[in-house]
Amino acid sequence: MRNERPLRIIHCFRSPIGGIFRHVRDLAEAHARAGHEVGIVCDSTTGGTHEDGLFEAVRPHLALGIIRTPIHRAVGPSDLGLLWRSYKEIRSLQPDVLHGHGAKGGALARIIGSALRVNKYRVARLYSPHGGSLHYDRKSPAGGAIFRLERLQERLTDALVFVCDYERQTYFAKIGRPPGRSELVYNGVDDAEFTPIETRPDMADFLYIGMMRDLKGPDLFIEAFERAERLKGRHLSALMIGDGPQQRQYEEMASRMGLGDRLMLLPAMKTRAALALARIVVIPSRAEAMPYLLLEALAARRPVIATRVGGIPEVLGADSPALVEPGNAQALGDLMADIVDDESWAHRTMPDPERIKARFSASTMAGRIIQLYRELSEEALFAEARLRTT
């Protein structure tokens, strides 16, 4: 049957770091195993040794290959060259689906997909904001300009895909309700990740995993850890694992506060390897959409405390005692001190693992996304047929 044929899918995004890259890798692997052909277009100037390893791991699943080209965060004249280079590469791959992730990836997928349609070539155009531009204040000059661009691009979009309801409602409030189709498909993790990780006596007390930039709250983690030690009246231990533009700043901050021998900073590594090094995961973000780390930690049976941002309350529960208000290092430190010696806290507070698995599995996510791709590809086919008759 025509609608059962393998699809040719290309994911466009800017930075191969963090949750977007994880999301794309999960989709690529699941869809490749289902017989579809997948490719990636992303930035060539970001990422390091850790990301190189991730690319090598996913490469066998990418029949359409990996296209890496310079993609700058800010909008500028260089984007014209980026669009032309990417258009030629993507056109040669003849995709059925272009799925853009984040503001820059979304622009690439939708503008190039629309250019292909002008040339009477069918392709479905999807966009997942993944937070990104939605973090801006709509009253700021930058936010106002970005949201106007987002609104204009809705005309080039066959479907918006949100990874949590918070992201969807924020889009509606800041940009407006899209005139076309929008879907909510939660992030998910693989069944194998729901295997508990052993807890050992020599583990650190607290763990931060993520990008080293203020948006993710490493500075709040350091301040909260120092406060937790003062409240407990003894030394605790913590690890900060990740890379990013402000890493040196946090190293100096920890040293200045006299925490150097108890709070260690390590380079990025695989999440489950990091989760095996500490007992309690802390997510101190100032803003989020739906962080994979939260799902990975819960799947591994690691207790989590987090800020009340993005889709986190949709997972932990709106009234969860594991949540504190964003930007409040004092409240975060108080909670860290309260639970560090409370062995029953996780059992009382964390959501049921089976419920998490049923709602946030990678197989459910990938299945819903491929169903959407098929439906939109059929619509694009009819649109192409209409163009050919005009």
Automatic annotation (TrEMBL):
<dbReference type="GO" id="GO:0016757">
    <property type="term" value="F:glycosyltransferase activity"/>
</dbReference>
<keyword id="KW-0808">Transferase</keyword>
<dbReference type="InterPro" id="IPR001296">
    <property type="entry name" value="Glyco_trans_1"/>
</dbReference>
<dbReference type="Pfam" id="PF13439">
    <property type="entry name" value="Glyco_transf_4"/>
</dbReference>
<dbReference type="Pfam" id="PF00534">
    <property type="entry name" value="Glycos_transf_1"/>
</dbReference>
<dbReference type="InterPro" id="IPR028098">
    <property type="entry name" value="Glyco_trans_4-like_N"/>
</dbReference>
<feature type="domain" description="Glycosyl transferase family 1">
    <location>
        <begin position="201"/>
        <end position="348"/>
    </location>
</feature>
<feature type="domain" description="Glycosyltransferase subfamily 4-like N-terminal">
    <location>
        <begin position="17"/>
        <end position="192"/>
    </location>
</feature>
<protein>
    <submittedName>
        <fullName>Glycosyltransferase</fullName>
    </submittedName>
</protein>
